[in-house]
Amino acid sequence: METAVPLKKKPFRLATIVLPILVTQVALYMMTFFDILMTGRYDTYHLAGVTIGSSFWLPVYTGLAGILIGLTPIIAQYIGARLHAEVRPSVQQGLYVSVALAAIVFAIILFAVAPILEAMPLEAEVRIVAADYLTGMSFGLLPLFAYTVLRSFFDALGATRISMFIILLSAPINIFINYLLIYGNWGFPELGGAGAGYASAITYWLVFFIACSVAWKHKPFKDYALFNGWEKISFKKWKVILVIGVPIGISIFVETSIFSAVTLMMSNYSTSVISAHQIALNFTSLLYMLPLSISMGATILVGQAVGAGQMRDAKQYSYLSVGLAVAFSFVSIAILLVFRAPIASLYTTDGQIIGLATQFFIYAALFQLSDAIQAPVQGALRGYKDVNMTFIMAIVSYWVLGLPIGYMVATFTELGPYGYWIGLIAGLTVGAITLTGRLIYIQKKKFV
After folding, report:
1. Can you tell me the distance from the alpha carbon of 129 to that of 175, in angstroms, rounded to the nearest whole number?
2. 291 with 371: CB under 8 angstroms?
């Protein structure tokens, strides 16, 4: 793939990579969005149960799936260096790793989550819904992890539109299955919040089969013959994947788990507070899709440029990514401040929950700028295969600073549950500053 392009053409190239990723991420997010939205319309207790269940699901899944995302910079650098023969073995070993990771998460859900739920001060109905939701989701673990490997392959080649088309095909199906299983329409069982979990699992299998078909039959992917000449498990090649992937996975786990930890710590508050917090978090997660997509695009383009030895291009893509994300962060801030009440009313008709959610949205607006900086910077660092400092700083900024600050403000001031969001703002700000410093250091080192 061509990586050496003039600076004036780089924004266009970045946009052509990022836009399909954004559509893909939004479509993936919309599955969770409609889980929350449709469950909220069904019953408040089921909304709280899905909220608690997703607080367990998201950090565990995203953290371990993040390990597989490590394939993106690995393959991108192979492509940039024109080492095409290395791609098929990397993908096959990645699929083996995906099976192992799916087994690990399934065991965690089976043996560890139930005792934790029992120990939490939750209403019985909320606890039951959370457990049933996780059971349904667990049936989709294997295809979800395996699809992550194939998506990393597509994206590393710069073919981000493929992932977009696959998810766009499957997202409406997920919503339709939600309609059947949550509400019990057309003779299907009425499962409430648990139905959202089973609907997602069915959709993940569909996504995986479509991705396999594309990789097998369509150019340029079939030229890599991913499913031919299967190698035996090679722990040496697993190590290559894990050395890059594990720090990425830990970094993602640390980042997502801080939000889940806050949600779980809010179990001491009322069901209305939990639901309002989840509404605010759910919508701000939608806004985060843009800096996240820019981050993933930065990983691809920086990785290809580094693989081709074009360090100046890599640096330019890094800063273009940050500039684009920052520009759009001001749009996100305006949306959160101006349309707080209408957004909250999309999720629920409960006036008390709407009022609480609008307050959470104010604090969410405050960390949009930090999010817009740290996400693309992380993506650029991954393109350089510099991943260890990222997860170290993630631990420091979120768990050493963010959560303790949030707990103290929530416990010892009148802000109550909003105090946790103050902690999140502090953690994100520290993360943005430190990671930017690391990127500058790496780029200077690469030019030496």
Report:
1. 19
2. yes
Is 388 buried (19+), middle (13-18) or exposed (0-12) by CB count in 10 A? middle
How do residues 340-372 score in pLDDT, each as one tens digit? 889 888 877 788 888 888 998 998 888 888 888
DSSP annotation of 230 reads P
Task: Decide if 274 contacts 123 (C-beta within 8 A).
Answer: no
Kindly report, residue by residue over 97-142, the tens digit of the pLDDT.
999 988 888 888 878 777 877 777 777 778 888 888 888 888 988 9
Q: Which amino acid is at 47?
A: L
Element (H, E) at 242: helix 235-265
Q: Which residues of 7-46 are buried (b: 16+ CB within 10 A; e: fewer)?
A: eeeeeebbeebbebbbbbbbbbbbbbbbbbbbbbebebbb
Residue with tokens 């103050």: 422
On whether the CB atoms of residues 303 and 244 are closer than 8 A, the answer is no
Instruction: Give the pLDDT confidence of 49-71 residue by residue, as tens digits.
Output: 887 787 777 777 777 777 888 88
Q: Two tokens at 179? A: 């309609």
